[in-house]
User: What shape does this take?
Amino acid sequence: MRLFAACLLPFIVPAVITGFIWSLPGDPASLICPPSVCGGTEALAERWNLNGGPVQFFTGWMANAMTLEFGNSWRLHQGLPVLELLTEAIPTTVSLIGLAALMVMAGALLATKGWLPRALDPLLRFMGLIPALVLALAGAAFIELTYGFDSFSDAGKIARLFVGAGVLGIADGAFTGAVLGTRTTFETEAQQRYVGIAILRGERLIENTLPNVAPALIGQMRARIIHLLSGAVIVEVILRIDGIGDLLWGGTLRQDFGVVLAAATLFATVSAVLLVVQAVLETLVALHVRRAPSGVRLERQA
Amino acid sequence: MNRRMPIAVASVSFGALIFAAWLAPEHLGQITPELALKGPLEVGPFGTDTRGRSLVDYATQGAAVVALPALSAGILVGLFGVLGGLLRCLGSERVNAAIQWFSEIVGALPRMVVILVVALLLPREHRSLFPLAWTWALLAAPGAMDEAASVAERLGGSRFVEALRAHGYSARRIFLVHVVGYNLRPVVVRQGAETMMHVVFLEIALSYLALAENQPSFTHADSLKSWADLLKLGYPSLIPSLDYNSGHALWLALGLLGLVAVMSIAIGRAARAR
Assistant: This one.
């Protein structure tokens, strides 16, 4: 089911957006770009393939998207190929999300090992309440104070990326959720009877609980990475990091439907890839769990 | 467990939000340049903006922008949670599979991306926080349904319902009182309260991002001020070299955000099981 959902996701997002445009009252071309802004909508409808109905638009756009042809930006960077804009932005966003995800994973690891004292829980809970916008503003002020006019130099850009990753990793409960979520999952599992028996047999706690909690932890981590993708929009705009989130926001503000549709589909594709990774990891864990533990002879063999 | 304190805090903070929204003026007050950027000690209670207008109007208009959409989104998520819990109690595998499908697809979408797409597609004249808040609620629904379903599962699901039926309880009493009232209430109320908080944070984020680019907000009319305007006004005070005395606006914005966070936590705790 998860793999099937993953396959559908990149198609569902543009399909829903297309359906939404045609379900709203009024002409799609004037809806996407009001006549007061864009002038003659008939010519625009023809240029954007909006004049043949939703099915023609969707199939045409998907067929082009399959060949990585997303057309040109309609308004944000008028005339520039959307693929070029995406290609420039992807590495930055990947670095940002990657660094933030590392931070979240470090939180989960610290919780697993029990290296974070419980006395820090109130602080973690407080940190988890801070919205991304507020932390991003604090981060932007820090960059401004530290780098001043040099904040757009190479060093400034790197600093923005690291500060952005820190903000993403902490804000909206990302780090807090990783620590408390992982710890709760392990604690709940540790109360199972088999764990008690394993400990009495002299086995280690983590070796018994980890295979059984791994699917839950993998699912949590996927949800957190999707959450980071969501927060990247705010962080990239406030900290002026030229990533996909910034592109998506710019496209939304300037009603550049070409950029938004491509960026949203890209986000959906990333999410689909994460679903596939989760399904594969869950399968590997299930195979590992089904294997008889080494050193234990099955009853039949005995 | 003593729930008096959370109930009191939740009532006061929620009452303050609704009262502030009710007090909100249609337009900001008179411009008085000589009172520009005065602190709370000089012009009470919250100080003034760059044109000498009281920040009280900013706070109340911001409350008016978020109060009802956030409340409606919270209620919507709560209803989805109730639905998830009740459907689990029915014990139908088909229904549960359908819910899992819905959760898998909707839960895999980055929320901000969906919100921006909806914001883009909304006609300018119909821009308001309501559709965005409801979209957020829809995106938060799988989590609420899943958690409520887990609670119903721990309760015994369909076996719990059968047991109560065997005791001669009516369907209304079983589902409304025992399942929803006694068991699902803590989860769905907490989820609803968290969604309220998230919608407020979403509004501020969207308005701030639009303000940063000198564009109209997706969430309210240009004549209204959001709490994001307070953040925008107060932000330069963080940079001493700018010599901009607007720290009072920043503190007010953070205080209002804190109030919403406290309200959300207090509502969740007030609804906890005894």
